[in-house]
Amino acid sequence: MWGGRFAEGPSAIMREINASIPFDKALWRQDIAASKAHVAMLGNQGIVTAADAATITSGLDRIAAEYEQDGVPEDWDLEDIHMTTESRLAELIGPVAGRLHTARSRNDQVATDFRLWVREAMEQVDAGLELLQRALVNRAGEHAASIMPGFTHLQTAQPVTLGHHLLAYYEMIRRDRSRFADARARLNECPLGSAALAGTGFPIDRDATAKALGFDGPTGNSLDAVSDRDFALDYLMAAAQCSLHLSRLAEEFIIWASQPFGFVRLPDALSTGSSIMPQKKNPDAAELVRGHAGRIIGCATALMVTMKGLPLAYSKDMQDDKPPVFEAASLLALSIAAMTGMVADSTFRTERMRQAAELGYATATDLADWLVREADVPFREAHHITGAAVKLAESKGAALDALSLEELRAIDPRIDERVFAALSVDASVASRASYGGTAPERVREQVAQARRTLGLA
Ligand code: ARG
């Protein structure tokens, strides 16, 4: 392509280190679409003749059909998807192929292709996350009143409802979707026509190519446009944050599925067995979601480090932008699908959850609150009295509401028989009816709201 300037060809090492075709062939659809938009504009502007534009367009269509059918050929000498397509175009239509690259550089070409690819990836993630939200909301609706222990420090804290717990993840995913939507809005400016770095002397119409490719308009600074990868970083950072939510959810399932907890039976379809221990059913899919989050965060870190020292405008380091984005995209899509299946198809063992809440002194705060409300005891003193009651119950291996009234009154005589109504886990969750709280009625409202948001109601 640049033989004019060189006395000898690249060494084998140069060819290998330079070749991006093994991975950037994933951009072929975007590359063809952007080339078609570009050549249509060149034709409309009279920069190439209408006849040449038509020849180039049909050549590009033929190449697209070939790639669709046989895949993209990988010739390291052709470096990347852009050169691969251009050289095939020359084979098909002859020297007129050389007119396609008028008023364009691979620098604005790759920036455009990659934006198109990332835009589509954002849309796919959003669709996957919506399915995950549906699964969460459906299960939350089923379990609006199922009681489980709520934890802080992974120690039993207060009873909550399983529906409330699942809706916590609905909220996280809601924020993830909004981050991807923000990123998409910022991404949607078209670099095409920025050429190598300085713009071009040809009378191009950047509004036309931007519009043809579904962008809101052209980028405003050619130097920035060819060297900006913020859109890829925005995507990766949103992906990283999303992956850590998925990882936390996966971690919950891993813990809940362990025998001492026994809160959930994972779907067989998302579990594996052991080659030696016949009883085992391992949460491998959840563990891999947790593992993949580490890799996705690594992808975001990799591109940040690639970009941080680069002067304007394009440097070849930027060719390394694609592998981390492609890797993160496929890991994230799999993780979302795995967690959607896990939420939708797991069996929640609600009797075990309830029992764990009852045995874990989860209503101790309710006893303290009762003393404040009904006996006008200052909260700090009520906390102390309740601590003594828990200590006694624990020494007897019993639940709080299994203590007799005499035993409770021996700790503090202001306690009377009405206290037992406050000590049940049902009374406890029902009482937490503040907005956003765990009471079944609040959870049902949140489920209804979420169903409206998702278009399910
Ligand atoms: N393959 C390159 C990349 O992915 C695009 C081409 C820019 N090359 C250049 N030598 N200016 O970044």
Keywords:
457 residues; mainly alpha; Fumarase C, Chain B, domain 1; Fumarase C, Chain A, domain 2; 3 domains; two-stranded antiparallel ribbon; two-stranded parallel ribbon; 6 strands
- Tell me the count of domains: 3
CATH C-level name of the largest domain: Mainly Alpha
Strand arrangement, major sheet: 1-2
Q: What's the alpha carbon Rg, rounded to whole Å?
A: 30 Å
State the major sheet: 2 strands, antiparallel
Spell out the helices and strands N to C: HHHHHHEEHEHEHHEHHEHHHHHHH
Identify the bound ligands: arginine
* Estimated structural class: mainly alpha
Domain Fumarate lyase N-terminal: 4-298
Subcellular location: Cytoplasm
Protein name: Argininosuccinate lyase
Catalytic activity: 2-(N(omega)-L-arginino)succinate = fumarate + L-arginine
Kindly describe this structure:
By secondary structure, the chain is mainly α. It folds into 3 domains: 12-102, Fumarase/aspartase (N-terminal domain) (Fumarase C, Chain B, domain 1, Orthogonal Bundle), CATH 1.10.275; 107-144 and 151-356, Fumarase C, Chain A, domain 2; 358-454, Orthogonal Bundle (Ribonucleotide Reductase Protein R1, domain 1), CATH 1.10.40. It is built from 19 helices and 6 strands. It has helices spanning 12-18, 21-24, 28-44, 50-70, 81-93, 106-142, 162-187, 206-212, 222-227, 230-257, 284-307, 322-345, 350-359, 364-375, 379-396, 405-411, 419-423, 425-431, 440-453; strands spanning 147-152, 155-161, 189-190, 217-218, 264-265, 347-348. It has a two-stranded antiparallel ribbon. It has a two-stranded parallel ribbon with strand order 3-4. Strands 5-6 form a two-stranded antiparallel ribbon. A hairpin with a 2-residue loop joins strand 1 (147-152) and strand 2 (155-161). The longest helix is centred in the N-terminal third of the chain and has 37 residues, at 106-142. It is elongated, with a radius of gyration of 30 Å. It binds arginine. Residues 20, 24, 80, 106-107, 110, 314, 318-319 line the site of arginine. Its main location: cytoplasm.
